[in-house]
Amino acid sequence: MVDGEPTVDMMGVDPRRFGPYATRGYLKEKNEEAYSNVFTTHYPDEERGGARPLKTAPCYDRMKALGAVFGSVYGWERPNWFMPSADYELTSEELNQSDPSKVLLNKNHSKPLDDGRIVEKNSFRRSNYFEHVGNECKHVNEKVGLLDMSAFAKCVVKGPGAEAWLEYIFANKMPKAIGRISLVHMLSLNGGVRAEFTVYKTAPQSYYLVSAGAFEAHDHDYLFKLAPKDGSVNIQRVTTQTGVLVVAGPKSRDVLEKLTDTDLSNESFKWLTGKKINVGYATAEALRVNFVGELGWELHHPIEMQNYIFDQVMEAGAEFDIKPFGIRAMDSMRLEKSYRLIPREMSIEYSAF
């Protein structure tokens, strides 16, 4: 009230961490779940199963069939990591419980799979998935992997005043040429980082903005509040219309070259640029940028084409031993690359510098 905004990061209690998906029924189930876990041990990276699955990308079933262990962010199901085999299961000895089906005060496992198997153990040390996430990182570093990032928050900003307005609200310059990409930050009054956006210029006075899926309501709320009232800027949310598949790793170019007519060489397709390409019969905006730190492209596509693109990429990538990987591997690799993340390394309490 004194300074006009909080001086400490309040994201953990910000109501905008939820969206329209949080209906009364959803809240009821999550409240009951929270109450039943009041006196249990709360572990890092714990994923609870109440009111799930709710929002799923088209490739959800394909990822599930490949062994995905899902987490939830802003209602979306995202693969956290992948089981090493179809019959993978933790034993009661591995869980240190005589009867893991009982609800114990020290319950240390996530929600069982549909068939009752327990595949993830919570821990303050290295959990059972540590080794498998490490294998995913190694595979992407050496070969090629596929990641579903459809939960990204996405919107289109256009209009005669779009460029000037975006220059005003963001730190960093907007891309000048069509097809160029900029990484920009929305700052607080004291210079802390409120939000981070990838901005892709698609046409004169037209920009495609991508930010963290977990903070869609938060980020878009600020955009709409800061938008000029004279109609010179139009903001359209496109999160649920656009899917995102990330192909990353040293063999990613080899995979995509089998599917597109576009020249993907370094000379023709530079870092921080994007182009509309064909992927088999489908089309996608291919952005040469990712949060992994390896050679790769984000394929932003009409969500109704996702399964076709997924199948094409997996089929073309079989020659190069392509495998899916999850958010936890991505998080490890982005740390290795020193890519900062909101609200961890960046928040209103810390600047980007």
TrEMBL record:
* FAD dependent oxidoreductase central domain residues: 3-56
Any single Gene Ontology cellular-component annotation: mitochondrion
Listed InterPro entries = FAD/NAD-bd_sf (IPR036188), FAO_M (IPR032503), GcvT/YgfZ/DmdA (IPR028896), GCVT_N (IPR006222), TrmE/GcvT-like (IPR027266)
Name of this protein: Aminomethyltransferase folate-binding domain-containing protein
Boundaries of each GCVT N-terminal domain copy?
60-352
Species of provenance:
marine metagenome
Q: Name one Pfam family in it.
A: GCV_T
